[in-house]
Design a protein that fits this description.
- The protein has ten helices and ten strands.
- The chain has 357 residues and is α/β, with parallel strands linked by helices.
- It folds into two domains: 215 residues, Rossmann fold, CATH 3.40.50; 102 residues, 3-Layer(aba) Sandwich (Rossmann fold), CATH 3.40.50.1100.
- Helix 3 packs across helix 6.
- The chain starts with a helix and ends in a 36-residue tail after the last strand.
Length: 357
């Protein structure tokens, strides 16, 4: 098994030919091995550094977009539309890579607590030329459309988090890449792999890919969003849809693959909700920095790492870092009145008020 993409092309010939990529990723991303000495004694932790997955923006979004935007290109789309909260890494990554491929981007953004990097994310959208539209009342999930709405000519809609079946394929490939790296390095097989579960695509792909590789690694899906976006049933539906569609493309792809996955759902670390820090996540971020040299954030990755720290048995573990390490352009001096953003985004700028509960 050389890497994930070549494995798919070699073993599922029609599948590899039918699913082009846009060439956005820098893979394979590295693995590093650490001895974690604080919290529950000394343990071995292997880190998958997907924070380095792309040049413009890293993290887990790029692997999904590599397949999704390639399909949009094939269908001659000129504009990409997606959704998220104002600080959404997915929305920003989608806008950045859409522009790189010559497509305009529109992002519908809803409010969230004003936590780390939201201001910088909005400023990066402004520098990118992203069209940003207020998502509406998040309790009602309403959308106010501009003239023409989504009927604009050649518009391609990307679901929140990029968690479509095509996005899942990106993480099937990633899991096969991970399996190959473990094998090449002769490393002990981790008993569990911890990853943030936000919109389910990353979790679904990793579980399916590890099942293809026949590795009995338990994917620990640490929920960081509402169950409306990340649920057990939702993950299994997404896995089943992906496996079914891939089987239709290439009958050698196992249609029953979902029955072979090893997955555990961890719902005890979301705290007060999406993007709301918890004491456990803040402590986990400090330990990851001090002992692993790993920079995490408290919305996704630190909550996933908190789950790893909470488990007491002394078995080898793995952690999938989904947080981009690519620095954003400086937001210093960016003022709301110069951006053309909706006025109620003022709360995320230095002079604005904190977001309400």
């Amino acid at each position: 098994m050389a890497n994930g993409r070549r494995y798919l092309e070699r073993h599922f010939v029609r599948l590899g030919a039918a699913l082009p990529v846009a060439g956005l990723t820098q893979t394979p991303t590295p693995l590093s091995r650490h001895r974690l000495t604080r919290e529950r004694g000394e343990r071995t932790v292997v880190v998958k550094h997907d924070e380095r997955s792309g040049v413009l923006y890293g993290g887990n979004k790029v692997r999904k977009l590599d397949y999704i935007l390639a399909r949009a290109q094939k269908l001659a789309a000129t504009r990409i539309v997606t959704f998220g909260a104002v600080g959404s890494h997915h929305a920003l990554a989608t806008a950045l890579y859409a522009k790189r491929l010559g497509m305009a981007a529109t992002c519908f953004l809803g409010h969230q607590p004003n936590v780390e990097h939201v201001y910088e994310t909005l400023a990066a959208h402004v520098a990118n030329g992203t069209e940003l539209i207020r998502f509406g009342d998040p309790r009602q999930q309403t959308i106010t459309l501009p003239p023409g709405g989504l009927r604009r000519n050649r518009t391609w809609v990307v679901p929140a988090g990029g968690s479509s079946w095509l996005g899942v394929v990106g993480f099937i490939e990633a899991a096969l890449e991970f399996a190959a790296q473990l094998d090449d390095a002769g490393q002990a097989l981790p008993a569990r792999l911890y990853v943030a579960n936000g919109t389910m695509g990353t979790v679904a792909g990793l579980a399916l890919g590890l099942a293809i590789a026949e590795l009995p690694v338990e994917v620990n899906a640490v929920r960081v969003t509402s169950e409306n976006y990340a649920s057990r049933d939702g993950v299994f539906r997404l896995m089943h849809k992906t496996a079914t569609l891939l089987h239709r493309i290439d009958s050698r792809f196992p249609a029953d693959l979902t029955e072979r996955v090893h997955i555990r759902f961890r719902d005890g670390f979301v705290g007060g909700g999406y993007s709301r820090p918890t004491p456990e996540a803040e402590r986990a971020a400090r330990i990851a920095d001090e002992e692993l040299g790993l920079i995490l954030e408290t919305t996704y990755t630190a909550k996933a790492f908190a789950a790893l720290l909470a488990d007491e048995d002394q078995v080898p573990l793995a952690f999938w870092n989904t947080y981009s390490a690519v620095p954003l352009p400086s937001a210093a001096g960016v003022r709301l009145e110069d951006t053309g953003l909706p006025l109620d985004f003022a709360r995320y700028f230095p002079s604005g008020e904190d977001s309400p509960d």
